Each structure stands twice: as C-alpha cells, then as structure tokens.
Amino acid sequence: xxxxxxxxxxxxxxxxxxxxxxxxxxxxxxxxxxxxxxxxxxxxxxxxxxxxxxxxxxxxxxxxxxxxxxxxxxxxxxxxxxxxxxxxxxxxxxxxxxxxxxxxxxxxxxxxxxxxxxxxxxxxxxxxxxxxxxxxxxxxxxxxxxxxxxxxxxxxxxxxxxxxxxxxxxxxxxxxxxxxxxxxxxxxxxxxxxx
Length: 195
What we know:
- This protein is an all-alpha fold.
- The protein folds into two domains: 8-91, RNA polymerase sigma factor, region 2, helix turn helix motif (Rna Polymerase Sigma Factor, Chain: A, Orthogonal Bundle), CATH 1.10.1740; 109-191, Winged helix-like DNA-binding domain superfamily/Winged helix DNA-binding domain (Arc Repressor Mutant, subunit A, Orthogonal Bundle).
- The protein is built from eight helices and no strands.
- Helix 3 (45-62) packs across helix 4 and helix 7 (158-165) crosses helix 8.
- Residues 93-118 have low confidence and may be disordered.
- This is RNA polymerase sigma factor RpoE.
- Belongs to the sigma-70 factor family. ECF subfamily.
- Residues 132-182 form the RNA polymerase sigma factor 70 region 4 type domain.
- Residues 27-94 form the RNA polymerase sigma-70 region domain.
- Keywords: Sigma factor, Transcription, Transcription regulation.
C-alpha cells in the first residue's frame, strides 16, 4: 500500500460515518480478489460479476455491523462465499472448479517434482497432473473444497479461513488435511510417471 493510503479500518470507519467514496476505495482494492474467489463457485463470467456486485452491496449494507474483530477482507470474503453459495442454491447448481495456476502455490509440495522440468513429456505430464488436481478438487465435499481453495489459492491463514467458514481453526486444519490427502491419493499415479 502506498505511503499515506488509508488502512482498511480507516476506510471502514469513514464509510460508517457516511463517506460512500471510502467504500468505493475498498471495492477497487478487493474487486479482483472477490471475483477470483467467486469464480471458483460460479462458471459464467457475467454471473461472477453479478455475484461480486451483490457481495459488495451486502457488505455495504452490513458495514455498520463490522467491528474490526477480524480483518476487513476476511469479513468481505465470508460475505462473498456465502453470496456465491446462496446464488448456487437458488439456481440448483453445483460449484464449478477453478483454473488457478498451481505452480505458484508452495503448499502443494508433491507438485514441485514437475516444476523444474521443461521437456515435452514433462509438460504433458504436468498438464495431466493439473487436470487431475482440478478434477479431484471439483469432487470434494463443499467444506473441504472451500478450505483447500482459500488456503492454497488465496493464501489465507488458518485463522482467517476459520472466520470465513465460521468454524474452529482445528476444523479448518482437519478439512485441509483431508482435502490434501484426497488430492495426493488421486494424483499419485501422475507423480509415479504412470497415467
């Protein structure tokens, strides 16, 4: 954040005092992260934008209840996740997978085996591995999928995920462990060089 830029808490306090432009700054700061989060649940880009807009509207309407017990983005992410889930339930759709690059994620240590190899065979195996990872993530129960994507793709702390998912940190750790276990079991043949 550039020097002199107001913190999230300062912006929230300004919004709570009636400064609508301060909320615009929060929207600008978080719109891409919120859209990225929602796109893990909603496939159509136009619908992602609609759900994101609805999330920000809900956040604006509820901002007077924000007390700063958590970081603003954690509070906003929770609203966005709930809005996306409500959208899916109202449309009777299942959450879609995502297309986030996994090679930027240090937590998937089993994935690192392929990261330094540039041969065509290795690239093909890497593409198959990515497809296998996305495939298994799509099949995970909702609570496991949410926990693993918030941790691995958004880089959120266990504590922040616990606030977003409204559950204890121990539950978050368990869900992430179970998700990683399912992913590793599913992709083991790709790491062993088979198909």
